[in-house]
Amino acid sequence: MLMPNWYMPLFKLNRLTIQAHNHLKVPSVNATDARHGKTIWVSDRNDPDQNIDGGTRYLKHLINMFNPNLDLAVAAYNAGENAVIRYNNSIPPYPETQNYVKQVLALYNQ
To answer: In Å, what is the CA distance from 83 to each residue of 6, 24, 64, 91?
Structure first.
């Protein structure tokens, strides 16, 4: 399957979010996480391929929503987009989310 040009950088970012979750020993947030309020682009949440693809597409949605602020998109992926909006489009004051954003972006920028 030929992927759109935007897909691979977001796929990398999605993999790094999973890696950060594993490093921080917190449950992984993905495109089917309840804190996001709905299932996004995934018909079978137990299918790892669909879950990663859905998470990648959800990151694209968040990056478009908070463009050009990648910090906010990653924070929204962790804490939910409503939490970022609730805190006036800033990273929520949750230690887990603040650490998560630092970890993911440090890995992404390597």
So the answer is: 26, 20, 17, 8
